[in-house]
C-alpha cells in the first residue's frame, strides 16, 4: 500500500489537528476511568451493597453495571452521583444513536409540498 493510500485511510501522523483530537479523547477517557474508580472506592461499590463479584475483566465490569441499580436504594448523594456517572456514557451513546437515526430519516423523507385540491381557477 502506498503512502498516499495509507494517509487517505488512516490519516497523516504528522497532522497536529488529528494528534490533538486523539490526545483530547485519550485524556477524556482516562479522566473518566480515574474518576469512576475513585467513586467506586469511596462508595465501596459493589461490596458495601452485599454483592460479591468473582468475575474479573470485562465480565466483572458488566456485572458491576448490572448491580448498579442498588446504588439508588441507599439514597446517599455520592451513591447517586456514582450511578449517574456510570450510566452517563451509555445514555450519551443512546442519545447520539437516536439523533443519527433521526437525521437519517429526515434526509430520506421526501420534501413536503402543499397541493390544494382546488386552485383559484377552479372557483371561477
Topology record:
Elements: H1 3-10, H2 16-43, H3 58-66, H4 71-74, H5 77-108
Keyphrases for this structure?
124 residues; mainly alpha; 5 helices; 65% helix; 0% strand
Write structural notes for this entry.
By secondary structure, the chain is mainly alpha-helical. The protein has one domain. Helix content is 65%, strand content 0%. It has helices at residues 3-10, 16-43, 58-66, 71-74, 77-108. Helix 2 (16-43) runs antiparallel to helix 5 (77-108). It is extended. The mean pLDDT is 78.
Compute the number of strand runs.
0
> Globular, elongated, flat, extended or rod-shaped: what is the shape?
extended
Low-confidence stretches: none
**Mean of all residue-level pLDDT scores:** 78
What value does the Rg take, in angstroms? 25 Å
Could you state the order of secondary-structure elements as H and E? HHHHH
- Content of β-strand: under 5%
Distance between the termini: 72 Å
Binned, the helix content reads 55-70%
What quaternary form is this? single chain
Number of domains: 1
Structural class category: mainly alpha
Q: If helices are DSSP runs of H or I spanning 4 or more residues, what is the number of helices?
A: 5
Q: Report the biggest beta sheet as strand number plus sense, adding barrel if it closes.
A: none
Amino acid at each position: 500500500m502506498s503512502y498516499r493510500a495509507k494517509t487517505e485511510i488512516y490519516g497523516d501522523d504528522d497532522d497536529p489537528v488529528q494528534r490533538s483530537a486523539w490526545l483530547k479523547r485519550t485524556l477524556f477517557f482516562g479522566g473518566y476511568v480515574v474518576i469512576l474508580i475513585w467513586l467506586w472506592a469511596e462508595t465501596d461499590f459493589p461490596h458495601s451493597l452485599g454483592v460479591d463479584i468473582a468475575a474479573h475483566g470485562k465480565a466483572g465490569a458488566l456485572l458491576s453495571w448490572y448491580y448498579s441499580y442498588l446504588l439508588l436504594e441507599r439514597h446517599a448523594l455520592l451513591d447517586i452521583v456514582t450511578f449517574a456517572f456510570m450510566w452517563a456514557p451509555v445514555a450519551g451513546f443512546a442519545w447520539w444513536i437516536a439523533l443519527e437515526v433521526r437525521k437519517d430519516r429526515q434526509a430520506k423523507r421526501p420534501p413536503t409540498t402543499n397541493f390544494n385540491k382546488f386552485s383559484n381557477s377552479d372557483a371561477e
